[in-house]
Amino acid sequence: MKAETLATLNTERAARRPVILITDISDGTQRLVKAADFGADPLHAELEKQLRMGKSAMIESNGKKLFLNVYAPTARLVIIGAVHISQALAPLARSLDYDVTVVDPRTAFASPERFPDVKLIAEWPDEALPGLHIDHYTAFVAVTHDPKIDDPALLHAFEKNCFYIGALGSRKTHAKRGDRLKAQGVSEADFARIKAPIGLNIGAVSPSEIAVSIMAEITAELRMPKTIPAELSKVSNP
């Protein structure tokens, strides 16, 4: 790899911006494509596919064998609310290699005993979130049912363009959430990004089952090229 290519690669990775290194197997020539440039690249469909999957692969294009080496940031999951669902969701996400953080100012809930081996911040979202450097490769889940905690957190998720934003609550609860957020200047487009009621409709009832439905929805948002089919509509939460 040329020194210039390596320097660019390291810069993009440090900034948590995905890139793909394309190597022509026949002669070893290489070129680096930033995610922002995928659309203009002749291999854009293959680049986008492999980035979604997060896997490197060998492809053939115009009679040439090319190796696509994918460098994607580690996906993060920020959970607002140290509740029962979070206790099931955090270890599940960690098993899928997400970098997980739980934020809740209520110290009775946000305790190491309830969340062993998970990064835990017992502060209000306004204080905790700026230091987490949340970005597009972050999934964001708000599950406290407390507007004083969830609403400011959701505003931060909009600002950082998280790839997934979900919030616990029934449709009625979500409608009231919409009134509050829109009164604070949230656009219809941003509000529509919230997955609510949260999780895929798998008939989930228990906190553990709801955690599975949430993680499934996050995975679909990260990996699938299109929106989730209509039949996989949201699960109703209390």
TrEMBL record:
It comes from Tardiphaga robiniae. It comes from the Bacteria. InterPro entries: MoCofactor_Util/Proc, XdhC_Rossmann_dom. Signal peptide: none annotated. Residues 77-218 form the XdhC Rossmann domain. This is XdhC/CoxF family protein. It holds the Pfam family XdhC_C. Gene3D superfamilies: NAD(P)-binding Rossmann-like Domain.
